[in-house]
Amino acid sequence: MDKTGGASIRGNQWQRLLSWKRGKKVTEDGEDGENGVKDEAKPNTNLGQKLKVKWTELVFDPAEKFYYVWLQVMIFPIIYNWVIIILRTCFTTIAFNYLTVWMTLDYVADLMYLVDMIITVHTGYLDQGILIKDLAHLKKRYLRSKHFQRDLVSLLPTDLLYFVFGLETPMVRINRLVRIPRLDEALDRMETRTSYPNTFRITKLMIYIFVLIHWNACLYFALSSYIGFGSDRWVYPNISKPEFASMRRQYFYCFWFSAQIFTTVGDTPLPKREEEYLFMIADLLIAVLVFASIVGNVGNVITSLRDRDNVFFPNHELVKAYLRSHHISKELRQRIDNWYQHLHINKKIMREKEILEQLPLHLRTEIAVSVHLPTLSKVTIFQSCEKSLLEELVLKLTPQVFSPGEYVCRKGDVGHEMYIIREGKLAVVADDGVTEYAVLTDSNFFGEISILNIKGNKSGNRRTANIRSIGYSDLFSLSKEDLTDVLSEFPAAKRHLEEKGRQILTKMGMLVDTGEENEGEEDNVETKINTLESNLEILQTKLARLMMELESSNRKMQARVEQLELEVAALGNQPLEDEEERIKRELRGEGVGEEVGWEREEAEGEEEEGLDAKVKKEEQGEDGNELTKDGDGESTKSREGDVEKMVEVDKSGLKDPDDQEKKEKDDSEKNKDKGDDRPGKGDGAEIELEEEKEEKSGEVDSEEGGETAEGDSENKDMKQKDEGQTKKE
Question: Would you report the helix, strand and coil content of the chain in percent, each value rounded to 5?
């Protein structure tokens, strides 16, 4: 017991010691790792963490090659499901004979569908030209899109229905067919990247037609199985016969039958049953669409090829029609035909600028640099120029093709361009056209001195030799105007090229010393010309601005006139009665205020009532009394005169107020001259003076306050006169 107990105690001690050492070693390793000492276990864990982090943060660019390759890979599982599912459903023999193969391929396709969902989640998209790489945002966008719904439906575990319907019903996997938009995306991207888009377009159409014929063949075999094999001539023959029993024979026969229907060949047996008629009607309707799509796509391809030829090469048919209309000689027409033939056979593109105009400037520059820069850099005067100048010049190069025996330039002609030989041979010949001095080959150039406009050149920018094409020669031409435009932005390069040109002319003995004074004068003249041109541009700009302002003011004036015409027309449509009433109101002084008009109307009403009462009293007095005193007669006459004056005053209210004032002044002067015969003259002298004062005050008020105040003062005067006369009576 003691031995075993001592052994157990010692074993426990050893275990504690080992555990303590292990713990100490772990702590030392941890400290070493913190201090920078290499740790073997730690890098492995860090690598796994880094890979995990990188995968969670990985975002694919849809424009990169990986995404494009993955789309090409996804073509195979999609086409597999579209072809095999219907094949296994209708041809049960094929389904059972290769069941293991089909099941394996099914789940490989499902796995690729799942990987495609993950890659789609990790694929960025462009928002305002910027690639969005936020994975959380990409997940939300994908989950809200229709692509997620389609992908989710395509991966539903419908294979569980095998336990219900059995393995002979692969149609339970028909939900895998909803991935067809992914196939369209892959084929469209391939069409944009291929070098032969027309050929690829035809190939894509044939793939669609093949799948359609395949589906129709499978349905035809299934319908034949439902009706009964060999029951009539229209269905598939009896499979009990050895020649029609093999799987390959069954499929090929059905495919041939379906192709005959869709191509509308017509060499098919006539249907006998209603099901057969319905199947044929549906096939013929689909065949019309298939035939139309084939014809339309092939026609588009042919049209695009013709348009491409018209863009690449000059239109030969138009040139031929022009030559026939002008009765050009047969020899010249033959030369033109040979030139066109050379262009088409050797694919010589003459319209590079028109083709490349569809691209942005920086891409056009890169293409021109890659194609023409090696040739341009071989020209002696351009060898030491900066690259930016050469990049500008390559955009100005124009391709030209010369036929055998055609002269590129002749001696004495004014040089407007220089030439660079891209391919071919040219001969420098004498004036007789027979003697050859030299032969120019690829990368040679000529005519560079004539476009630099160097002062002191003896030839005066004229050609000094005859150059003729030996065979068909491809040249690049650079015009003097294009070179001048480019050099205007590179003054240092311009001086450098002119200096090189002088050196070449000096070696050739073609340079004349014109003196510094002449050069200075010419420089001054050029400076003045440039200044005048700049001033002219400024004046043209100002003139254009003034013309714009003039047009704007004319438009505004015309709009104002039209508005005034509309207002005048609107005023002219108002009734004339309103206008007459307005004039009457102005003459009566109603415009001063409504209260004044009301008071005047009340005063006029009272005056009319008083006049009527007085007239009645006078009539009664004349009938009942025979008092004929002189004073009474005079008073009656005065009353009648007063009534007449009141009527005249009422009438004069519609006339000019100035005429009324003059009339009143004349009446007052007459009364002064004749004397006042009215009764009460001696007794009421003070009253008359007060009345005259009131009349004067009424005139002043009429001048200050208008026609309304004048009418009120006159009414008051008349009332006072009537009251005085009634008292005397």
Answer: 70, 5, 20
Instruction: For Cα atoms 718, 723, 729, give the angle at the middle one, nearest 5 degrees.
Output: 125
Same domain, 446 and 372: yes
Which helix H or strand E contains 467, and what residues bound it?
Answer: strand 466-469
- Residue written as token pair 């275990």: 15
Residues 250 and 374 in one domain: no
| DSSP result, 661-722 | HHHHHHHHHHHHHH---STTTTTTHHHHHHHHHHHHHHHHHHHHH-HHHHHHHHHHHHHHHH
- Cα 245-250-251 angle, rounded to 5 deg: 150
Contacts of 568 (CB under 8 A, 6+ apart): none
The Cα 488–Cα 483 span in angstroms is: 9
Kindly indicate the confidence band of residue 292, based on its pLDDT and cuts at 50, 70 and 90: confident
pLDDT range class, residue 225, cuts 50, 70, 90: very high
Assess whether 268 and 382 both reside in one domain: no
Residue 681 confidence (pLDDT): 43
What residues contact 394, with CB distance under 8 A and at least 6 apart?
A: 365, 368, 369, 371, 372, 373, 376
Query: Which DSSP letter does residue 629 get?
Result: -
SS3 314: coil
Q: How far apart are CA 722 and CA 2, in angstroms?
A: 166
The neighbour count for residue 111, using CB atoms within 10 Å, is: 11
Can you spell out the DSSP letters for 184-227? HHHHHHHHHH-S-HHHHHHHHHHHHHHHHHHHHHHHHHHHHHHH
Which of 498, 515, 532 terminates a domain? The answer is 515
Q: Is the dihedral of CA 506, 511, 514, 520 positive or negative?
A: negative
* pLDDT tens-digit series, residues 253-282: 999 999 988 887 767 888 999 999 999 999
More confident residue, 298 or 283: 283
Report the predicted TM-score, pTM, of the whole model to 2 decimal places.
Answer: 0.53
C-alpha closest to that of 285 among 211, 208, 217, 216 = 216
Tens of pLDDT, residue by residue over 129-146, are: 788 888 888 899 999 999
Above pLDDT 90, what percent of the chain? 20
Q: How many domains does the chain have?
A: 2
Cα angle 597-598-602, degrees, rounded to a multiple of 5: 115
How high is the pLDDT of residue 329? 84
Among the candidates 292, 320, 338, a domain finishes at 292
Tell whether 176 and 269 lie within a shared domain.
yes
Instruction: Check whether 31 has a pLDDT greater than 90.
Output: no
pLDDT digits (tens, 9 = 90+) for 547-556: 999 999 998 9
Q: Which domain holds residue 90?
A: 57-292
Single-letter amino acid code for the residue at 680: G
Q: Which residues pair with 407 in a beta bridge?
A: 468
CA distances from 600 to 293, 653, 661, 691, 695 (A): 95, 11, 18, 20, 17
Radius of gyration of the chain (CA): 57
- 186 and 287 share one domain: yes
